[in-house]
Amino acid sequence: MEHLRPLAGIIFPFLLFLYVFFTWSRRSVAHRKRIPPEAGGAWPVIGHLHLLHAGEPTHITLAKMADAYGPIFTFRFGMKKALIVSSWEIAKEFFTTNDRIFASRPKLVASKLLAYDYAMIGFSPYTPHWRQVRKIATLELLTNHRLEQLQHIRAFEVQQWMNELHKMSIKSNERGEKVAVEMKKWLADITLNTIFKMVIGKRFSAIQHGNENFPKALIDFFGLFHIFVPSDSFPFLSWLDLGGHEKTMKKTAKVIDEAFHKFLQQHRERRNDAEAETAEQDFMDVMISRVEEDGQHFSYDADTVIKATSLNMVLAGFDTTTITMVWALSLLLNNEGVLENAQLELDEKVGRSRQVKESDVKNLPYLRAIVKETLRLYPAAPLLVPHESIEDCTAAGYHISKGTRLIVNVQKLQKDPLVWEGPCEFRPERFLTSQKDFDVRGQSPQFIPFGNGRRMCPAISFALQMIHLTLANFLHGFKIERSSDEPLDMEESVGLTSLRKAPLEVVLTPRLPAHVYE
């Protein structure tokens, strides 16, 4: 440690100088323009970083601060300033009047190392590249017409999934046992198999990964975005990999890239086969064709665009969809009356002689209300992916300078007591009565689990179709119970997305006759 003392003697005075300089600069601007209030408790140099706790999700910490400092305040992540918004009225202004100005993303280390140097549309700055890739992704995979064409994939995967669960539960019952099934894994499996089939053309479980670390790398992806990287808050430390996080990110990115490079090579080889013309095209096939046609519109080489966009589709479709289904089942198991009503609706509208089809979902308003209420209480991304202003502007009566990050606390926003009666309670009925006209596609600014504006999630239709079909079949096909008499612990995990911290163990008993699954 002795050899670090001369370096510390240089760095710490420099940090103190920067703190004094920027504090003076902010106060000087404050005298001239009205700027948003800053949360109290900031320390020199590090800002409010010490207020974030490793054991508490960031959105919960920021929600508590909003109770103290109001629906809009600034929070300093070291030398980087972020605007924290937890009011739907204020958020609406950012996503309408100032939508273009806040349509960009901050250039974080994780976005560079894990998201193909910002090529992935979820983390890309607001550029012509982003607009072109989003257009392709939306038109070629995520339109209602395209999703309807791929309906058979969802139906097949749900059928296979239900069959496996049914066989397992039957064997347990024949032995007179009650086996608790860990549903997080089962829900992740069906979602991964479906989205991989749509994007890559193969079920995830059927892929010869070559690298046993590939499945783990996919899971680790979102967790790495939540890790604190010093250089994101203190740019002058970019030459140091303090904590070794960048090394871990590079390793994870390498594992994922090798797998997707292999998928890309297989697709290119298949395009030369005679059967390729008649085979159903998956999303990667479409990306290859479109990138070759429109290569001049992209800022990256063709292979990078194809791999980055295909990976984005997989990750966006997998993580958030799985998380929502886990929370929905958790809430139902803790609210037996709601669970009984959902199964009664399924019995009345579908009967017990067949499994649920996607065409049945439109006749299941209570099930859809359960999903909406789940998304309200536990949005998969409780903090929207940060936006960043590309120029100075005025919002909510405040001067917002260029380069300010915008973080919208969706979970806090969606619990406004002036909008929702009993805002923290699980009441699906509200979406059949007082909030029956609220949708999730940006038309209801009080309810934006998928975000809003230009950067709103483009995969809303896919997510809802997958969630509705899977949950409907599961609730219709099985009597479900908690593995103990105690209510489930609803504590949230720490991360970019909000997964339930504890395992989700469910005891299954078949509700339908055996011939339904034959």
For this entry, give a set of tags.
3-stranded antiparallel sheet, 4-stranded mixed sheet, disordered N terminus, 518 residues, 49% helix, 7% strand, alpha+beta, globular
**Which class best fits the helix and strand makeup?**
alpha+beta
Distance between the ends: 69 Å
What share of the residues lie within helices? 40-55%
| Count of alpha/pi helices | 17
Largest sheet: 4 strands, mixed
How much beta, percentage-wise? 5-15%
Give the overall average pLDDT: 89
Strand order of the largest sheet: 1-2-7-4
Taken from the alpha-carbon principal axes, the silhouette is globular
* Uncertain runs: 1-8
Computed over alpha carbons, the radius of gyration is 24 Å
SSE succession: HHEEHHHHHEHHHHHHHHEEEEHHEE
How many beta-strand elements? 9
If you had to describe this structure to a student in words, what would you say it looks like?
This protein has 518 residues and is an alpha+beta fold. The protein is built from 17 helices and nine strands.
List the helices and strands and how they pair.
Blueprint: H1 5-32, H2 58-69, E1 72-77, E2 80-85, H3 88-95, H4 109-114, H5 128-142, H6 144-149, H7 151-174, E3 180-182, H8 183-199, H9 214-226, H10 230-233, H11 245-271, H12 283-293, H13 302-334, H14 336-349, H15 365-377, E4 387-388, E5 393-395, E6 398-400, E7 405-408, H16 410-413, H17 460-477, E8 478-482, E9 505-510
Parallel strand pairs: 2-7
Antiparallel strand pairs: 1-2, 3-9, 4-7, 5-6, 8-9
Helix pairs in contact: 5-12, 7-8, 7-17, 8-13, 9-11, 11-13, 12-13, 13-15, 13-17
